[in-house]
Amino acid sequence: MQGNDRKHLPRNGCFLSSDIREESMETLDQPGMQLKLVLIFFRHGARTPIRITPGIEEANWDKEMCVEEDHHKVEYDIFSLDGKSGPHHSPIEQSYQANAFKGGATRGQLTVLGMNQSYELGTYFKKHYIEKCNFLSPEFSSNELFMRSTNINRNIKSLSCVLGGLYGDSLSTKQNESPRIHVDHSSTEILYPNYQHSKPLMDNFFKTVKNTDVVPGVRHVRLQIQELLEQNEDVHLDLVSVRDGISARKVHDVPLSAVLEPLASVIEKAAVGITCHSLGKGTDTLQYAIGPLLQLILSNIERVTSKTCEDKMHLYAVHDTTLIPLLIAVGIFEDAWPGFCSDVIIETYQDQNGDCFIRILYLGKEKKLGPNNNTLLPMQEFKDLLSPCLINKEEFEKSLINVETF
Q1: How confident is the model over 299-358, as pLDDT tens digits?
Q2: Element (H or E) spanning 42, and its range?
Q3: For residues 369 and 375, is the Cβ–Cβ distance under 8 A?
Q4: N or C: lower Cβ tally within 10 Å for the chain?
Q5: Beta pairing class for 356-362 and 377-378
Q6: pLDDT for res 22
Q7: 153-167 and 112-125 helices cross at what angle (nearest 10)?
């Protein structure tokens, strides 16, 4: 796929019409404000499903769907957060690679479509932050851009494709400055809710997934689906995985189950409810899901506005389970699952007096924040907005179990 053909690719890869990106990013209509920092959290591109839905004929996920094309190839190095070179062992990625679908593709694997979506996302950012706002230099500079990903292949590759969309051919002409993508150990990862290692999250997660009927409205849907799939009602069907399978098939034009297709929106609603419950929405448990990431956001803003750091943009390759609690924390979650390559952008501005203000965009659309529905929030009000979900580093670390040591 070359040239102008790329502009026709779907950007989100979702199957709900509510999840649509603005064609061009909304600009700030406030004179005297200087953009200081842009933090972008985006979901990876389209991928194969994570699990098979029992009772549904397995789709053919051809491994050729995941072969990298020339314009996706961006050279980069992987570094740990402590500055040491090389990727860490990822037990999550290892579990994906150990399970292949019919056709040879493995589970949770980024496809060519997902790479194209990610590349398109990069060009979207380029048009706004390089060409329109002149915020970033037209050529890559490690002094301006910091990149971090979860240590999962689809995310690392999605991030490299976004980078390719941002800077294109100029990346190949750079000398002695390969872009660095930073990753962390899975046991201390904060770019997704760490169900595997944070005990409060772990307890709440497993209590929910073992009996999703505790979530209002889910039992009826589960029993209805299981009856249609001719499953014993005592079998506890994972509706979150069912939703995932529908989404992956839909975006890749893989035939859907005639049984499940009419119920896609019902399944989506149930999956959102289950996920929010497992995150601890409305309880203190939500702090363990998103609090460390919120602290990182505040820390990054403080470092730039206090001039202890020259970064202009941070790119974070995350997951749907990252975006959901983040949207909840800032008060803009609308009970719709974030599609592939969905993004949350947090912009920091300073006025002529040096006071800081925050603007948030979701899918390119400026969002109203706080009790007064402001699109530009003073820094203290932004901190107040996040405060119910914040958790200090020491308390979060106390919650971790089975932490990797190297």
Answers
A1: 999 999 888 888 999 999 999 999 999 999 999 999 999 999 999 999 999 999 999 999
A2: strand 34-43
A3: yes
A4: C
A5: antiparallel
A6: 82
A7: 40
pTM equals: 0.94
Contact 314, 332 (CB under 8 A): no
- Candidates 265, 290, 68; CA nearest to 198 is 290
CA angle 303, 323, 350 (to 5 degrees): 30
| In the block, residue with structure tokens 């570094």 | 79
pLDDT digits (tens, 9 = 90+) for 239-253: 999 999 999 999 999
User: Which stretch of DSSP H or E encloses residue 395?
Assistant: helix 393-399
Q: How many residues does the chain have?
A: 406
At 327 the pLDDT is 98
CB 227, CB 259: distance < 8 Å: no
Q: What is the mean pLDDT of the chain?
A: 90
Q: Which residue type occupies 306?
A: S
Whether 386 and 370 have beta carbons less than 8 Å apart is answered as no
- From CA 102, how far away is CA 355, in angstroms rounded? 57
Residue 104, Cα to own-chain centre: how many angstroms?
Answer: 26
Q: Give the integer Cα–Cα distance in Å for 366 and 372.
A: 15
| DSSP notation for 82-135 | TS-BSPPP-HHHHHHHT-B-TTBPBTTPBPHHHHHHHHHHHHHHIIIIIIIS--
Both tokens of residue 304? 């730039």
- On the CB side of 228, CA atoms within 13 Å amount to 16
Distance CA 157, CA 154 (A): 5
Query: Given this model, what pLDDT does residue 255 score?
Result: 93
| CA–CA dist 347, 358 (Å, integer) | 6
* pLDDT range class, residue 18, cuts 50, 70, 90: very low
Distance (Å, rounded) from C-alpha 232 to C-alpha 36?
57
HSE of 205 in the Cβ direction (CA atoms, 13 Å)?
Answer: 16
Name the band, by pLDDT with cuts 50, 70 and 90, for residue 405: very low
Q: Which residue has the tokens 């297709």?
A: 261
